[in-house]
Amino acid sequence: MHATPTTRAAREQARRQRARKSIAVSATATAVVIVGVALAIVFSPGWRTVRETYLSWHYFKQVLPSLPGGFWLDVRIFLIVEVVVLALGLAIALIRTMRAPVLYPVRVVAAVFVDVMRGVPLLILLYLFAFGLSALGFSFIPGSYTILGAAALACCYSAYVSEVFRAGIQSVHPSQPAAGLALGLTRTQTLRHVVLPQAVRAVVPPLLNDFIGLTKDVALVSILGPQEIARIAQINADLYFNYTPYVAAAAFYLVITLPLIRIVDRMRSRGLERQNALVLM
Amino acid sequence: MTRRTSLAAIAATLIAAGSLALAVLPGAAAIAATACTNGSLSLVHKGQLTVATDAPAYPPYFENNKPANGQGFESAIAYGVGHELGFSSSQVKWTVEPFDDSYAPGPKSFDFDINEISITTARAKAVDFSTSYFDNPQAIVVVKGSKYQHVTSLAQLRGALFGVQVGTTSLSAVTAEIHPTQQPQVFNGSNDVITALRQHKVDAIVVDLATGFYLTSGEIPHGIVVGQFNAPGGDNWGLLLAKHSKLTPCVDDALAKLRSSGELSAITKRWMQSGAGVPVLK
User: Fold this and answer.
1) Which residues of B touch A235 (CB under 8 A)?
2) Which of A66, A141, A145 to substitute to test the interface with B, most B CBs within 10 Å?
3) pLDDT tens digits, B59-86
């Protein structure tokens, strides 16, 4: 039995109508919320103070030229640390998933490293790496606090990223490496060509999430001396007793983090589509 | 918006100037005096003078990180002001106010904040300052054996890597007066600045002169003050109060009394070493 064309057309029309109605309702609701919040803020008793203290155009213009240099330092630290984090994180994850009895001590070291790096606040890690390692007085330890701070960042994020990779590796069904071995591949070849491609693909969104976290945590290195963007904002805020420089610095961060966040969201929904083989509304 | 602000500022200045003019007139002085005694003051907490400073509180401004012991330059000043306003020592209560928060808009948790804060016109748009109770030049501190130990001019320091504390006048002083070729390293607290110097991560640090004397007498055993110089416009320290605080004229009044009675210079002499022996670099 087929629905008659007229019925189908009627259904289509009804569906379109529902879609139009839902768009109209959501647009109206959004507009009401935005306008409501904006009015509530603008008519709040402290709005004038907020506008002068956080949104001063005068100080925004004044501080703007000094920010790109600081932001560029953040970007450079981020890029270098990110590469180290990917390599170190993957290495730790591989060590921790290997089962050879002879590698037991290495696995213990890796496990302790991950536990400690995840368990200690990053701020304290930065101080310990920079001031603590320098106090040892070894000549092979890098001279700059900034480099030591970047090393602390790399260690901390490697620990998190190694756990992400490990989850990815463990999410690959055991029948997959078994099939690889059955086909005559060595263990290394199985890992390289069967396990890792599937593992990495599964964990790209959570990895990107960690990257977003890293872009912002780079600012913490400023406690060790370098004038990156958050520090420059603080210097100017302290100079003028006005918090607008922080808002300006936040805008710079959003330029980088917002596209990343959108990419992660899109990858998530694509992954779901692929996994469930259906189009999600 | 800017115009309205500046109008308000002008009005406030006129009112302040007017009340000052009244205060110098005989007869009016009595009225002004009664307005500035304990009981008639508008205070954060009734019956007590709430004074703020940052933690940790460093010597020579405070001793043993205990502002309430009356020891140290700024502690002594705060109690001096308190006494002039009619408070007993036990009525002066201390509270911790991080420097970065001290200028946040909204109600303050203190009557005034004393924290080595430099008075500038830009800052005075956001808060009230008292008149200056101290003028402190900047000091350059290096460790013995440094190649900058025997400099005789600021120009010779251009190649040095400097360490300074954030929020201090020292950074703008270094930038404006020395024009260093390397960007100065900026740290959260003076302890971190000291560590950087001790670990030879920076060539020299810039602090206010009084702090420089204190550091080289103990915290940095091999440290020496190689010279002093002035921040652009000088570095006058004032008490920080909420913008348009009713207390500001009273605090100024109390400081004026401390000044004329000689107590301010006695406190300064007791806690702050004279900078006469330190070469002035230009």
Assistant:
1) 166-167, 171, 186
2) A145
3) 889 999 999 999 999 999 999 999 999 9
Residue A1 confidence (pLDDT): 52
CB B136 within 8 A of CB B208: yes
Residues from chain A that touch B199, judged by Cβ atoms under 8 A, are 131, 134-135
**CATH superfamily for domain B36-134+235-271:** Periplasmic binding protein-like II (3.40.190.10)
Who among B171, B195, B201 is closest to A235 (CB)?
B171
Query: Cβ–Cβ of A225/B186 closer than 8 Å?
Result: yes
The owner of tokens 């002008």 is B10
State the ipTM, two decimals.
Answer: 0.78
| Rounded-to-integer distance, Cα B113 and Cα B126, Å | 14
Partner-chain contact A242 B201, CB within 8 Å:
no
At A53 the pLDDT is: 87
Dist CA A193 CA B125 (whole Å): 65
CA distance to partner chain B, nearest, from residue A87 (Å): 29
What's the CATH number for B137-229? 3.40.190.10
Q: Is B121 at the interface with chain A, CB within 8 A?
A: no
For strands B204-208 and B138-143, give the pairing.
antiparallel
pTM across the whole model? 0.77
Q: Where in chain B is the domain with CATH 3.40.190.10?
A: 36-134+235-271, 137-229
Mean pLDDT across B209-231: 88
Q: What is the dotted CATH code of the domain comprising A60-276?
A: 1.10.3720.10
> Which residue has 């920010």 as its token pair?
A67
pLDDT at B35 over 90: no
Every domain of chain A and the residues it spans:
5-49, 60-276
Q: Which two tokens stand for residue B88?
A: 């007993």
For residues A161 and A89, the answer to whether their CB atoms sit within 8 Å is: yes
